[in-house]
Amino acid sequence: LKENKLPLGFRTKEVNSIFDFITSGDCCSIVGVGSVGKSNLLRFLQQEDVRRAKLGQEWSKFQFVYIDANKLLQQSDWGLFELMLHQLLAELSRKEIDSEILQTVDELYHRAVESITQHLALRYLDRAVSTICGRLGLRLVFLFDEFDYLCRTLPSQTFAALRALRD
User: Fold this and answer.
1) DSSP state of 138
2) pTM of this prediction exceeds 0.70
3) What does the pLDDT look like over 93-127, one tens digit per residue?
4) What burial class does residue 119 get, using C-beta atoms within 10 Å of its C-beta: 0-12 exposed, 13-18 middle, 19+ buried?
């Protein structure tokens, strides 16, 4: 992992707008041609100093989860749900949280990747999100990067499922 910490003043207008969406619980998209710094912007949003500055006292109640679509095992809805669960588990592993909750999410991840239960990956992701939000009181923020191909190829039902997950 490369650590290029950007200054707090980085892209202030865009960052303020994004955090307005985040705090209101809404989705937003960052669109631009290649190599203009969208990935840097998403990684910037994850910086602790940025989250503290933009979210104030509530900063610790948000869990940001970076999803790089280049890491997909499969270009499908299952691939997306598997990656979301994997990255969620990775982020939680970096925090000091109740080991029972971490174990629950880990078990849900393993069920999602087993061939016999892969078709239930969305259900396992939903349960993991509910567990984290309910028991830890966290608000999850998924930051999707390199998502344009998936937007063009995944069925609309996948995006409806993500919307339902958010709601």
Assistant:
1) P
2) yes
3) 998 888 999 999 999 999 999 999 999 999 999 99
4) exposed
Please check whether residue 85 is in contact with residue 125, taking contact to mean a CB–CB distance below 8 angstroms.
yes
Closest CA to 101 of 125, 63, 131, 65: 131
Burial class (CB in 10 A: 0-12, 13-18, 19+), 59: middle
Gap between the Cα atoms of 159 and 118, Å rounded = 18
**Which has the closest alpha carbon to 99: 135, 125, 64?**
135
d(CA 89, CA 157): 24
Q: Which residues contact 104 (CB under 8 A, 6 or more apart)?
A: 128, 131
Q: Which residues contact 109 (CB under 8 A, 6 or more apart)?
A: 82, 85, 86, 89, 124, 128
N-to-C CA span, the chain: 32
Any alpha helices (H) in 12-76, and if so which ranges?
A: 12-24, 38-46, 48-55
DSSP letter for 4, please. -
The whole-angstrom separation of Cα 66 and Cα 43 is 8
Amino acid at position 8, single letter: L
